[in-house]
Amino acid sequence: MPISFQGCAFGHRRGSRVFTRLDLDVPAGRTALIGPNGCGKSTLLGLAASALRPGAGRVSYEGLDPFRRGNLARYRALVGWMPQGIRPLPGLTAREQVGYAGWLKGMSRADAWRRSLEALEAVELGPLADTRCSELSGGQLRRVGLAQTLVHDAEVVLLDEPTAGLDPEQREKFRGIVARIGERGHLIVATHDTADLARTYDSVVLLGRDRVRYAGPVAGLGALAGLGALAGIPGFAGEV
Ligand SMILES: Nc1ncnc2c1ncn2[C@@H]1O[C@H](COP(=O)(O)OP(=O)(O)OP(=O)(O)O)[C@@H](O)[C@H]1O
Question: Which pTM value belongs to this model?
Answer without folding.
Answer: 0.89
